[in-house]
Amino acid sequence: MKDEQILGTESIGRLLFKYSIPAIIGMVVNGLYNVVDRIFIGNIPGVGPLAITGLGVTMPIMTIILAFGMLIGIGTATNISIKLGQGKKDDAKKLIANSITLSIGIGIIITIIGIIFADTILKLFGASEKTLVYAKEYINIILIGSVVNILSFSLNHAIRADGSPKISAGIMIIGCLTNIVLDYILIFKFDMGIKGAAIATVLSQAITAFISLYYYLSGKSNLKFEKTNLKLDKELVKLVLAIGLSPFAMQLAASMVQIIANNSLKSYGGDLAIGAMTTISSIAMIFLMPIFGINQGSQPIIGFNYGAKKFKRVKKAYLISLTAATIILCGGTFIVQIFPEIIIGLFNKDKELMNISINGLRIYLLMLPIIGISITGTNYIQSIGKAKMAMLLSLLRQVILLIPSILILPKFFGLEGIWMSQPLSDFIATFITAIVLMREIRSYKNIELREYEVIKEKESIEINSKMAIESDVNNLI
Asked: DSSP secondary-structure letter at 222?
């Protein structure tokens, strides 16, 4: 099909613009689901600071749900791109239906387990007696919507890999706008508080999931949906899980970090420190979501060309992606360091909470300008199918370095030690990722050299064979 062919022939710059812009819009919109909730919740009259802290306690659970969405969505999308690059279209079609089956099955399991053990989980995740009521009101509704949450995320990735990034972005925009409108109506007009925010989120995700399903069921998709493919293919599921394991592990690690951080924040700064972290992570999300969009836009380009062994195009796609990511992150750093009061004021204007948040924000995002190397680099390694290395790089920044920092630094620096842990982890992880990337890219020269030698050897054999035939003909004459 045309969309497959252009991945290997069209200008890399144009392809990245075509795929990344819609993906950036989609990821920003996806991030706004949570950010908008937090803005509205933080401004609920009288209870805003405690409500946003209660929401912060639920973040590890929401991250776990997202982890399963990424496990299926990214694993499916990456394998679709690779299969198309290899010319295996039937396998690509099977991956679409298999992702639907996996999303529904895993979503149901999460809902059941989450609701049964909600109280115990929330207390372990840092809830106090004051914040538990807000956390439980919100997360029980979110858990009920686990199926549509995971399904909408995974199908959105599949639609992008299917060659329809604009449709993917459009669907996400519809969902986000619906969420914003419902947030306002349910929280303030119907006075439903934090429960209204959760209902708004689930309803908007349900709309996103149904539209995404309709894209495939209507027959308008490039890769056609077939009911028979809903039956899980063991080998394809293994491939999905193998590729999706890296982002899945990264999100689980993020959840683990949130749990440890919540408990440390509670010990060294009280409930409001958890609320501050909720605000800081929301702001970080605003700047990081475009980078994840760039990753998603470059993924099919890198995956297809790597599968087709077009290494020059692969390298160019990554370098342009890294440049764009760095520019965005430098802009984010400027805003965070110069105008922190304005951006934090969107979430809550409580004086004590703002003071904690401003100080934390400036320290926490100190390494923002350089982490594009780490984030895009991990995506690059993942996109070429090296799942184990990608997972290691993800865990390096999220677990191996960050968790010890959170546990050790506060013992010496108190609350500020928790804020310092992220930039320290970012710096070391970025340095190591850069080394891995350089080695990977340099290895392509050896592959190209071997292929060149094989071609020359074949040409030599053909010439010698032709000369032998001509000699035999001359002898016969």
From this structure: S
Q: Measured at the alpha carbon of residue 232, what is the angle toward residues 227 and 234, in degrees to the nearest 5?
A: 145
Q: Per-residue pLDDT tens for 342-358?
A: 999 999 888 999 999 99
**CA-wise closest residue to 161 among 110, 223, 86, 244:** 223
**CA distance linking residue 99 with residue 77, whole number of Å:** 10
Structural tokens at position 431: 């340095």
List pLDDT tens digits, range 395-447.
Answer: 888 889 999 999 999 999 999 999 999 999 999 999 999 999 999 888 887 66
Q: How far apart are CA 283 and CA 344, in angstroms?
A: 8
* Under 8 Å between Cβ of 56 and 274: yes
Query: What secondary structure does DSSP assign to 285-353, as a single string?
Result: HHHHHHHHHHHHHHHHHHHHHHHTT-HHHHHHHHHHHHHHHHHHHHHHHHHHHH-HHHHHHTT---HHH
Domain locations in the chain as residue ranges = 2-452
C-alpha dihedral, 422 to 426 to 429 to 434, nearest 10° = 170
